[in-house]
UniProtKB/TrEMBL annotation:
Membrane topology label: Multi-pass membrane protein
Subcellular location as annotated: Cell membrane
Main location: membrane
PROSITE patterns: ABC_TM1
Xref: InterPro entries: MetI-like, MetI-like_sf, UgpAE/MalFG_permease
Name this polypeptide is given: Sugar ABC transporter permease
Pfam families linked: BPD_transp_1
Transmembrane segments: 12-29, 71-92, 104-124, 158-179, 212-232, 263-284
Native species: Nitratireductor aquimarinus
Protein family: Belongs to the binding-protein-dependent transport system permease family.
ABC transmembrane type-1 domain mapped to chain residues: 67-281
Length: 291
């Protein structure tokens, strides 16, 4: 029987693959070209300068601070989201009255624009007229206003908290899909054997949820690493660049200081760094599954 070329799966996915490759590789090529040239603030190339833009970024003291905060920002939000989302998903997976309404409430932050969410939080955290200070005053927990976003010691932790809150809905959705795929027979058998809830979670739920945990970690890592609106809408990297992460530092380089060559070099570095982390994590996860 002669097989039609239209039934070849590789041929069917080829158009989409080529389109995705063009969307990703062409901007990456342009960034690489700009990063290796001297560029004016209007984007005009003025000549090849090798790796000078990369050296300029590496020797900038603000870069190392932004890099370190990016690791803290990404790690804290990804881990915090996992810690919150797992129990929330398990609760929402139970059969109780009002479960549908509870699921809708959990998903609402995901439906709202991230920029709008950050702006609302900026109003709530206002040091003089914010709702958070008003609420704490009403409860008698503070006697003077706290400048939440004007101090480095409070601004960055608060932004991480906001990041966790807006990432929980997406992660909970992934976990709900995973929990719904686990057969009820396994839980019934464990109950008959006298297994506790913790033993059931450790021996049944967690192993079967590992693929969904890996998916959520990889996607959240990419999403959070490149997240711009929360930091920018609340503090714009301040006070004194103390809340800058790589993506806000990149924005300042390119659009506030007009250093397009250095901004392009940083973009390439961020792409390589994120790709390396993703490949490393996926490789380790696949190796653990084989063993």
């Amino acid at each position: 029987m002669i097989r039609s070329p239209l039934t070849n799966p590789y041929l069917l996915i080829l158009p989409g693959f080529l389109l995705a490759a063009f969307i990703i590789l062409w901007p990456l090529y342009q960034l690489g070209t700009i990063s290796l040239n001297d560029v004016n603030r209007f984007g005009q190339l003025r000549g090849f300068n090798g790796v000078e833009n990369y050296v300029a970024v590496f020797t900038d003291p603000d870069f190392l601070g932004a890099l370190w905060r990016t690791f803290i920002w990404t790690g804290a939000i990804v881990i915090g989201t996992l810690v919150v989302s797992v129990p929330v998903a398990m609760i929402l997976n139970e059969d109780f009255y009002g479960r549908a309404i509870a699921r809708v409430i959990i998903m609402l932050p995901w439906a709202v624009s991230l920029t709008m969410t950050a702006i609302v939080w900026r109003w709530a955290l206002n040091g003089e007229s914010g709702m958070l200070n008003s609420g704490l005053h009403g409860l008698g927990l503070i006697d003077q206003n706290i400048q939440w976003l004007a101090r480095a010691s409070t601004a960055f932790p608060v932004q991480i908290m906001i990041g966790i809150l807006v990432t929980v809905p997406f992660t909970t959705t992934i976990f709900l899909g995973g929990l719904s795929s686990i057969p009820d027979d396994l839980y019934e058998a464990a109950k008959l054997e006298g297994a506790s809830r913790w033993q059931t979670f450790r021996e049944i739920t967690l192993p079967l949820m590992k693929p969904f945990l890996n998916i959520s970690i990889v996607l959240n890592m990419i999403y959070v690493f490149n997240s711009f609106p929360i930091i920018w809408a609340t503090t714009q990297g301040g006070p004194a660049n103390s809340t800058d992460i790589l993506v806000t530092y990149l924005y300042k380089l390119g659009f506030r200081f007009g250093k397009l060559g250095e901004a392009s070099a940083l973009s390439v570095m961020m792409f390589v760094l994120l790709l390396a982390f993703t490949v490393l994590y996926v490789s380790l996860a696949m190796r653990r599954e084989r063993t």
